[in-house]
User: Which sequence fits this backbone?
């Protein structure tokens, strides 16, 4: 299986900070290796890096990337691109083909938009995928996509190197310090 990296488009720092943080945290929790942010917002990187330090894992955040050149370079290096959009092919109709590509060790870039996505993203992407053809949350779309791609396997993954760890408990909270 290849690596998964998220490319976040259209992040408006004054408006989208919380959602972009949630995109990054969802990506991290569900198996992505990192997030590329197509704007310069160091606050987002710092916020997510604090979570990685506290809870573990190897997730990275890089800001200020050019979406077009990043997507093209990704493909030139043998990876493939999935763009999550409500205008795409419904997830159940294309997830098997995407999973086959990813399982053949091809690295996967998942593009998640915010404001209006530039038209060339639809052309550069190998798959334009909809989690339903209705307006919805990009965080929910990313979570459903990553879970379906990996068939629920990331829900039990262990994160190494963090300062905190949750021990599953039927009742109450059990958080341990110093893994």
Assistant:
């Amino acid at each position: 299986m290849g690596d998964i990296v998220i490319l976040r488009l259209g992040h408006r720092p004054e408006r989208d900070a919380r959602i972009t943080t949630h995109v990054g945290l969802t990506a991290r929790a569900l198996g992505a290796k990192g997030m590329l942010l197509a704007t310069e917002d160091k606050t987002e990187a710092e916020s997510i890096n604090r979570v990685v330090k506290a809870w573990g894992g190897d997730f990275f955040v890089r800001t200020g990337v050019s979406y077009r050149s990043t997507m093209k370079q990704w493909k030139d290096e043998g990876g493939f691109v999935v763009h999550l959009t409500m205008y795409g092919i419904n997830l159940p109709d294309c997830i098997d083909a995407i999973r086959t590509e990813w399982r053949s060790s091809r690295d996967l870039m998942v593009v998640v938009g915010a404001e209006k996505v530039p038209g060339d993203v639809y052309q550069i992407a190998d798959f334009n995928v909809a989690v339903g053809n209705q307006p919805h949350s990009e965080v929910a779309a990313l979570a459903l996509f990553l879970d379906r791609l990996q068939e629920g396997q990331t829900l039990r993954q262990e994160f190494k190197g963090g300062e905190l760890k949750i021990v599953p408990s039927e009742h109450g909270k059990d958080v341990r310090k110093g893994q």
Summary: The CA atoms of residues 29 and 121 lie 26 Å apart. The mean pLDDT is 92. The first strand starts at residue 4 and ends at 8. The chain has one domain: 4-177.
